[in-house]
């Protein structure tokens, strides 16, 4: 199995090929322990989906990896390099390996679509404007929006905006793509197109994906491994076939019964 959850931190230490590794990660908000000594690791190129009830800590994991919030305890490494704890300069370098697509797109509203894609590659990666634009145009072609280079985000549908957000994340050539409920803010008729695009990306690239979704059909299609969260812990993990067809935990069965 390509991705595993583990209870013993020493077990992860023997797996240097992991692209993402969380060891004994605890995150509290006030008196609430949102993640409780969590261990898990993701091998390169794998597609891992986090499922579980609302409030079980899934988004917090993605936010920790994006360094939008910090753990209270534990360690996080990406591609063998520490993300936490680590000096700020190193965090900035490691962060370049990670792209994220948010539920609400989070595009820069006063920039054109093209500039949304070129801004970070120029500012953060140091690409020339020409190089960044060439790559941006290729990506807009990939997501089916080659004709929208000059548009502002507000002139696009939600589905188109999310495609731009996906292209913008890919423009940084990340090793890991984090997807946080990327279709939940979309009108129902726009969901399928965005999921199809992500399926294509999953099939045609070697990018590692970590995905929080309530779209169980999508999770079943693209995942190598599904992790079921409850109360800040992984209570069950396995192949999508196993988790969706023959889960071991009553809690998983109950959750799937409610969402499927
Ligand atoms: P999920 O993605 O599984 O729905 P989250 O990771 O978003 O869960 O949230 C886990 C818990 O942490 C929830 O109880 C949520 O209210 C709490 N939480 C998340 N972010 C914050 C924050 N910035 N301040 C306080 N509590 C938070």
Strand content: 15-25%
Mean pLDDT: 93
- End-to-end gap: 25 Å
**Bound compounds:** adenosine-5'-diphosphate
> How much helix, percentage-wise, in residues?
25-40%
> Treating each run of at least 4 consecutive H or I residues as one helix, how many helices?
10
Sequence of strands across the biggest β-sheet: 7-8-9-4-10-11
- Order of SSEs: EHEEEHEEHEHHHEHEHEEHH
Q: Which homologous superfamily in CATH is the superfamily of the domain at 20-107 and 174-259?
A: P-loop containing nucleotide triphosphate hydrolases
Structural class: alpha/beta
According to CATH, the fold-level topology of the domain at 20-107 and 174-259 is Rossmann fold
Strand tally is 11
Oligomer: single chain
Spans with pLDDT under 50 lasting ≥5 residues?
1-12
Keywords: Amino-acid transport, ATP-binding, Cell membrane, Membrane, Nucleotide-binding, Transport
InterPro entries: AAA+_ATPase, ABC_ATPase_HisP-typ, ABC_transporter-like_ATP-bd, ABC_transporter-like_CS, Ectoine_EhuA, MetN_ABC_transporter-like, P-loop_NTPase
Membrane topology: Peripheral membrane protein
Domain ABC transporter: 20-256
